Amino acid sequence: MTTTERVGLREAAERLGVHYMTVYHYVRTGRLAAEREGATWLVRRADLEALAAPGARPAATRTPRPARLAERMVRGDEAGAWAIVEGAMASGASPAAVYEELLVPALRGVGDRWAAGTISVADEHRASVVATRVIGRMGPRFARRGRARGSVVLGGPAGESHALPVAIVADLLRAAHLEPIDLGANAPADSFAETAAGADRLVAVLVGVTAEGLEESVRETIGAVARRVEVPVLVGGRAIRDRAHALSLGAAGWTGHSAAGAVAAVESLLA
């Protein structure tokens, strides 16, 4: 293909009437095909004309496909993963939408691929590290000014190895003007109880469970909290089947299987 059939990103931006970084995001998120020669990205004129056609631009609120993010995470490509997240926000997605519509489905996809044996343990660990760093960079975007409406202690019980779901819920709680006290994964029952007893204006304790077979650990956590402070303990996560399952473990309620569901359950207590 001759160079006359391709243009650089700066010329592409001029032709589209957008900022250079917008075109760069289109390329990194797969919305605009490009080839790299050395340090330069080149775009086919035909692809550029197709993108410039009326109605062809990406919808303002459309989030990039989670599969793309999952692939970058599995490869350990932190820069590429962050480019997809940035592209989503540049297109109008809120930080909460990035979590709920992009990152969480991507993480679920990685987990499903690991369970099916199509990726290795090393792949899964690389993906987890990249996701952790993405969440770290996203965190400040959920901060709210002013006094929080109350605090929420949350974490995974002893035996639970996944901290990312808890971190995501913590950020969404922060966006809801609550103060999350995140204990991470594999937190002993006494750690939940001690933290809850020392929390200011405590609204609830959330216990997130993704691994099977941790019922006794959840019961111990709920019992330890109950001995120190009177506060609702809510249980949820993929390993908790339904409300009846949560109540059978001694919980005051069920948060469902999603991060948004956990926040909604806390909001219902405040209401």
Query: What is the rounded distance between the termini?
Result: 63 Å
> How many E-type strands?
8
Mean pLDDT: 89
Q: Tell me about the largest β-sheet.
A: 5 strands, parallel
Structural class: alpha/beta
Reported CATH architecture of the largest domain: 3-Layer(aba) Sandwich
Strand content: 5-15%
How helix-rich are the residues, as a percent range? 40-55%
Stretches where pLDDT is under 50 for at least 5 consecutive residues are 58-64
Sequence of secondary-structure elements: EHHEEHHHHHEHEHEHEHEH
- CATH topology description of the largest domain: Rossmann fold
Name of the CATH first level of the largest domain = Alpha Beta
Main sheet: strand order: 5-4-6-7-8
Instruction: Count structural domains.
Output: 3
| Number of helices in the DSSP assignment | 12
Mind telling me the C-alpha Rg?
22 Å
